[in-house]
Write the structure tokens for this entry.
Amino acid sequence: MNANELTIAAARDALRKGELTAVDLTMSCLTAIDAGDPLNAFVHKTPEIALEQARAADARLASGDAPAMCGIPLGIKDLFCTKGVASQAASNILKGFKPEYESTVTTKLFDAGAVMLGKLNMDEFAMGSSNETSCYGDVVNPWKVDERRLTPGGSSGGSASAVAADLCLGATGTDTGGSIRQPAAFTGIVGIKPTYGRVSRWGVVAFASSLDQAGPMTKSVRDAAIFLGAMSGHDPKDSTSAELAVPDFEAALTGDIRGKKIGIPREYRMDGMPDEIEALWAKGREMLKDAGAEIVDISLPHTKYALPAYYVIAPAEASSNLARYDGVRYGHRARLAQGDGITEMYEKTRAEGFGKEVQRRVMIGTYVLSAGFYDAYYNRARKVRALIKRDFELAFADGIDAILTPATPSSAFGLGEMASADPVQMYLNDVFTVTVNLAGLPGVSVPVGLDAKGLPLGLQLIGRPWEEGDLLNHAHVLEQAAGFVAKPSKWW
Amino acid sequence: MLDLTYETPKPKVIAGAKHDWELVIGMEIHAQVSSNAKLFSGASTRFGAEPNSNVAFVDAAMPGMLPVINEYCIEQAVRTGLGLKAEIHLRSAFDRKNYFYPDLPQGYQISQLYHPIVGEGEVLVEMGPGVARLVRIERIHLEQDAGKSIHDMDPNMSFVDFNRTGVALMEIVSRPDIRGPEEAAAYVTKLRQILRYLGTCDGNMQNGNLRADVNVSVCLPGQYEKYQATQDFSHLGTRCEIKNMNSMRFMTQAIDYEARRQIAILEDGGSIVQETRLYDPDKGETRSMRSKEEAHDYRYFPCPDLLPLEIEQGWVDDIAASMPELPDAKKARFMGDFGLTDYDANVLTADLESAAFFETVAKGRDGKMAANWVINELFGRLNKQGLTIAETPVSSAQLGGMIDLIGSGEISGKMAKELFEILWTEGGDPAEQAAKHGMKQVTDTGAIEAAVDEIIAANPGQVEKAKANPKLAGWFTGQVLKATGGKANPATVNALVAQKLGL
């Protein structure tokens, strides 16, 4: 086994015991990254930074000052601003942008001794479910069926692909409507979106501020617990970050869920849901039941309105958040013709800089906020959002500890397969995940099995707000019971 | 304290070609909050710094940067609300007002459309002794200022300076209760005075720290009263908004011009188009900036980067407890405690520094005399030399000491004017300077008595005449004063002359 194939937990233990150095571990990942170019996961490699950080981590390890993430090589989604390193949100409009500041999440990770291997591909501005909207081109899923290239999902497709292919031990992701959980499910890894406000958004390029939340993407639930602990915590620079202490998430992984109540929401049984997904869901229920949990059928009656509400609120916020990309101060500015004024500068810059999907969402968002349509769309969507949140609150008030749903309506699909489809077909990928963002809850995707084609499938567990530890414990039980150990066979 | 009651002033009436018209004016005042740091960043608000030197990452709208509320700006807004006797909203929220402009880096201004921090209040605007307009305040909200576009530095390029970007503004919105150009100027003056007393805005109009958008409409006499009774705007005329006025003089000119323009259109059978206009002081006219149809769709929505702002009543109470005395109260006190006239009290309370100066001078002295000296001599002299009260060469202690010399009869009022001149140019202690310049009145009755005796002895004829007609005793007084070089106290001389002549 190569060092890059280790889990964070295993690497941590080996590093602490001195069986492995952070430099060797990092070298192993850097080699894997270079070999992994066909996956198109890493878009900016930072080997110098990685080795410097690895040497510093080895020094800390030697001095006995070694937090859990010390010496752990990670990939960082391109949405995170990293000081002096290209941070483009996979968009041409931020071409050449190198921030003068470090995001709170990466600052925390670096303070804990983590190593940055480079920046990871993603959908442009995190808008997409297949990682096909990136200015860097598609990310390829390490899992393959026949010779067909598959999507790793999106928007954290680079993160998912990199972790699944062992290019790094873990990666940061962000999740606005499912962007951590869906790609995690498509690539057979673990991804958790924490409670809104658990992780600072400062220095993360904004998509939809009231929904965006960063989280870890890892090879195991234990890794997610360790990684999440290092990312989390109150940040006075983010007004929406919660002033709550960060519990020891790893310590919560007792494996004991006896007596816990697991809700099965009937509204998540969609028409035309593939049998395989249905079967997987049933399998998950049995596993949790066998572990001593009580399975309860519940109703989350406003679920069917979640996707439309999400596709009003998220574009509305995005249309405003992306207004700053105007060519005036940084990033791309269009070459202007004689006589062009400020309006032409905006129009040409944004037409050249933004891809089609971003333009579509900016237009939708502008429309739903415009005079005369605001109440019909944006305000109504906000009301729906409040109802969805209340659905969950009522379920939790009834004693439900966690809710089990499928993570995605299918396994990974082929790249380009949806190119000519109605955009709504793509948006349907988020049907099981957006409710969690709208309600601000923690949700985790756990790989549970393979479909008939041999592709990974995941289940989602949704937890009580601020109870990520308990949620991860449920995920841990599911993971142990599923015994998912399959790996993509290396073709790259 | 005096209870001051006021009559309501008459609205300004403009005679059109066909009939009379009345003015209706409402205002939005943008007042820069006095704060060292910006509304959502730690960057400095200092005026006149090098372009783009006071800019935090969030002010420049760098990717991923987030606003964090500056609590002091909230406190200042609450203090302003309390100063305008307004309702303080314990829960308010910030919204985004979206539009594209190069001096607006975020592409939106963070403002408070739906839930402003301050609700209804009022401002008493005096238009003369015993006459005042009570202008209702609709709301005050906090918002970010924009930066500055510079178009005249290069023939081919424009530049932007973000120093002002994100500085906190209070937008103070009045009801359409102002009824003429002079009232409009008086309203801004009064509001500015209150803000300066509160220390929540320095009121510097030249730097743009206080600027007004003025909504002007005209209506036939009687219509406004219908509006007042129903609060139904349809009784009033269509308004035009004159943007960004930062001079009282131009404001009154602009309102007058705008009202006459509207009257001419209406009397000509036309109708007023609701629009935004700019005043051109060179041409003395307003011109259209954009019509209602061209108006931006600002797509306001709650700012998702900021949670609703919740403040506690206890905190508001603490601010209320630390409020300074405001102009109306101070004026009433000056009138009550010092017996000042309405006019003098207004002059002396116009700004805090003048009021404080006066109070130091007046403390333990004759208030009216103190007011006369401060207003007529000191302010007169300061104005003449273009100095502010802070720059006065004569301190309150010096002026007070001088007034003491008058009060004790040691110098005459006439001498005091000379002494004031000496204090102004040379400085020094008033009593010492009076002595040094030989100004002290002779109150030593022995010396005066000798002079009286001497003049009586030398003028027997006059003595006879005076005994026959006591009114002529004044001649002796004049002679004595002349003999003593004007230093003898006239009252003492009078008494002695009367006594010696046996009158």
Observations:
- The mean pLDDT of chain A is 97.
- The radius of gyration of chain A is 21 Å.
